[in-house]
């Protein structure tokens, strides 16, 4: 194991064991390196790596702290990774969405609140038939984010936020080149929401599967 990797594993062990908790300040570099049996250089590189994935927060002039470790913060690194992928891998992110979002819609059918349902209804009524591509994409992102929030699962919200960046370009492309995109999107959103409103988890799952698969299949043919 490389020395930097060893340092990462040891710091991770301190966090998972509870020795270091969210918000805790790490010991001084020299003290921590001696305690873990590492060189200061290896420790420094490990801290840099863990800072990049939002596990640690280096505050210059103050010290290094463990972050809140909440899922949204940690999964910000996923968004960064997604942004680095080229368009030829966007289908893989659609596959991830197709695996995740039908289950999320099913959860929302059982867990949504009246207020969440009302907000989702507003999104389906706010989009005019002649809306431009930018408005369509923004509305679509809010709709899917709203359903994820209605599932009551913060982790899945963060995961979907991460993969949506790659699929956004495909949504724009579809909106530009395919006639009837606004009407089709609104009809599919309404069907998903109808199922969620009556608490029919399996219908919500089926409609969401069809909605995402439609974009995915169009993209496969368009390539």
Provide a short characterization of the protein structure:
This protein is mainly alpha-helical. Helix content is 74%, strand content 4%.
Largest sheet: 2 strands, antiparallel
Distance between the termini: 42 Å
- Taking pLDDT < 50 over at least 5 consecutive residues as the criterion, the unreliable ranges are none
- The percent of residues in helical segments reads over 70%
Radius of gyration: 22 Å
Order of strands in the sheet with the most strands? 1-2
Give your account of this protein's structure.
With 223 residues, this protein is mainly α. Helix content is 74%, strand content 4%. The protein contains eleven helices and two strands; from the N terminus they run H-H-H-E-E-H-H-H-H-H-H-H-H. It has helices at 3-16, 29-36, 40-52, 71-74, 76-84, 90-111, 114-126, 133-150, 154-177, 181-197, 201-222, and strands at residues 56-59, 63-66. It has a two-stranded antiparallel sheet with strand order 1-2. Helix 5 packs parallel to helix 9, helix 6 packs across helix 8 (133-150) and helix 6 (90-111) crosses helix 9 (154-177). The chain is elongated. The relative contact order is 0.12. The mean pLDDT is 86.
Key terms for this structure?
two-stranded antiparallel ribbon, about 220 residues, transcription regulation, single chain, about 5% strand, transcription, about 75% helix, mainly alpha
């Amino acid at each position: 194991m490389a020395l930097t990797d060893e340092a990462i594993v040891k710091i991770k062990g301190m966090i998972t064991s509870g020795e270091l908790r969210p918000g805790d300040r790490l010991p001084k570099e020299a003290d921590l390196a001696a305690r873990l049996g590492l060189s200061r250089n290896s420790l420094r590189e490990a801290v840099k790596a863990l800072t990049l994935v939002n596990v640690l927060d280096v505050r210059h002039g103050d010290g290094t702290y463990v972050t809140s470790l909440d899922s949204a913060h940690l999964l910000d690194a996923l968004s960064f990774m997604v942004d680095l992928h080229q368009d030829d891998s966007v289908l893989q992110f659609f596959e991830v969405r197709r695996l995740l979002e039908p289950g999320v819609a099913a959860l929302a059918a059982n867990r949504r609140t009246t207020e969440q349902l009302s907000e989702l209804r507003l999104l389906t009524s706010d989009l005019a038939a002649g809306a431009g591509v930018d408005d369509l994409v923004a509305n679509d992102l809010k709709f899917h984010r709203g359903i994820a929030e209605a599932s009551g699962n913060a982790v899945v919200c963060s995961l979907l936020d991460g993969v949506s960046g790659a699929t956004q370009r495909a949504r724009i492309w579809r909106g530009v080149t395919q006639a009837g995109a606004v009407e089709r999107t609104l009809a599919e959103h309404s069907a998903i929401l109808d199922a969620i409103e009556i608490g029919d988890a399996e219908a919500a799952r089926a409609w969401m599967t069809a909605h995402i698969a439609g974009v995915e299949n169009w993209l496969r043919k368009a390539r």
